[in-house]
């Protein structure tokens, strides 16, 4: 657990659990993140460098506004990552980020959706957020469909703001609001409110 954190380090779902990132995970997440199929969809196209990653982790551990988890299957296999960034308790908002299923044989099995839904639940219920936003590169259909299926809606597109392989790309901001989420049963990802726990 991060030195300055009192929040749960484990979020337990039905088919997955979210375990807080540890230093020993860094090599694995660098391998996932450095795959071309992942790199193409992150705002930074830079491959993760081991030394810089250790420095990043040291800063991350001190930051109260960022939490990152490893997505594990129920039997403990690490398959991906997810994070909440820019957690702003005073303004009751946070950003979803670092969503990645790194193990190719685990794509399209619903793990990313359950992980995202669990974090929505956690952010609204336990962090008291009213708004969760995220940024996604235009054209990332897998991610946009995933986020829409969890209840996020496009709020705006910022044009030509990211450069990928020499071409300018648009970035979409997607948002889910607590009020709308509570009102729409579908947007709660069919997760019963008593299911899942944190520890
Ligand atoms: C985006 C990503 C995390 C989705 O992971 P996943 O394991 O395929 O997602 P799930 O199985 O939980 O799918 C949930 C929903 O996402 C959507 N989806 C996932 N992959 C899709 C694809 N290739 N095409 C269209 N929709 C897709 C579907 O709506 C799906 O629901 P369905 O299977 O019931 O139709 C994965 O493709 C990935 O790691 N991509 C690279 C990194 C990335 O782009 N991260 C997001 C940065 S903003």
Distinct ligand kinds: coenzyme A
Query: Residue share in helices?
Result: 25-40%
In this structure, how is the largest beta sheet organized? 9 strands, mixed
CATH classification class of the domain at 10-131: Alpha Beta
Radius of gyration: 16 Å
Uncertain ranges: 192-197
Features:
about 200 residues; alpha+beta; Aminopeptidase; 9-stranded mixed β-sheet; 9 strands; globular; disordered C terminus; binds coenzyme A
Characterization of this structure:
The chain has a domain at 10-131: Gcn5-related N-acetyltransferase (GNAT) (Aminopeptidase), CATH 3.40.630.30. The protein is globular and about 45 Å long. Mean pLDDT is 90; it is low at 192-197. Strands 7-8-6-5-4-3-2-1-9 form a 9-stranded mixed β-sheet, sandwiched between helices. It has helices at 26-33, 36-39, 50-62, 111-125, 141-149, 178-183, and strands spanning 10-12, 16-20, 67-73, 78-88, 93-101, 131-137, 153-164, 167-177, 197-198. The protein is of the alpha+beta class. Helix 4 links the parallel strand 5 and strand 6. 28% of the residues lie in helices and 34% in strands. The structure holds coenzyme A (COA). Coenzyme A binds at residues 38, 41, 99-101, 107-113, 136, 140-143, 145-146, 149. The site of coenzyme A has 20 residues, from strand 5, helix 4 and helix 5.
